[in-house]
Amino acid sequence: MAVPARRPLMTAEQLFELPDDGYRSELVEGELIRMTPAGGTHGVVAMRIGVLLSEYVEAHRLGVCFAAETGFILQRDPDTVRAPDVAFVAAARMPSTGIPTFYWPSAPDLAVEVLSPWDRPAEVRRKVEEYFAAGTRLVWIVDPAARTVHAHRSPHDVQVPREDDELSGDDVLPGFRCRVKQLFPQ
């Protein structure tokens, strides 16, 4: 029985050079993953998180925040490039040459993924594991439908604060706190 030929693996550099075709794309172990554009609720929640984090990070000069679509290289050979909905990189990890034009060469310190209705639990778990394996120190999985946040300090150390509880930046964003309900539209 003939085995279908596999497509050649794609590199981060090849992904970066792809023309914009209206789809969001990530690279997982050299395989191109296409995603449809996010819906309205997803966009509002991601923006709220981005604004809260960015204002705090800038006020305390902690580093830099990134919006959705920013690629982070989590693995090489085969390449994995993920684009969290919001990300933070600490000032101590900023290259002396400044923010790269190309993808960020390593994992963010904080990765925030806002769930969409079509996200599968197994794929979300895989992303969490990839982030931590690459050096991410904190991952927030934000579920607008359930109005919850799963704050991962490791793939197995997870806290789920309630809507009226505070979400903490832990030692990744020292002093950052906000109520979970601030992330969601009323």
Description:
With 186 residues, this protein is an alpha+beta fold. The protein has a single domain (47-183), classed as tt1808, chain A (Alpha-Beta Complex). It has helices at residues 12-17, 40-59, 121-134; strands at residues 24-28, 31-35, 63-67, 72-75, 80-82, 86-90, 110-114, 138-143, 148-152, 158-159, 166-168, 177-179. It has a six-stranded mixed beta sheet with strand order 3-6-7-8-9-10, sandwiched between helices. The longest helix is centred in the first third of the chain and has 20 residues, at 40-59. 29% of the residues are buried.
Strand and helix map with partners:
Layout: H1 12-17, E1 24-28, E2 31-35, H2 40-59, E3 63-67, E4 72-75, E5 80-82, E6 86-90, E7 110-114, H3 121-134, E8 138-143, E9 148-152, E10 158-159, E11 166-168, E12 177-179
Parallel strand pairs: 7-8
Antiparallel strand pairs: 1-2, 3-6, 4-5, 6-7, 8-9, 9-10, 11-12
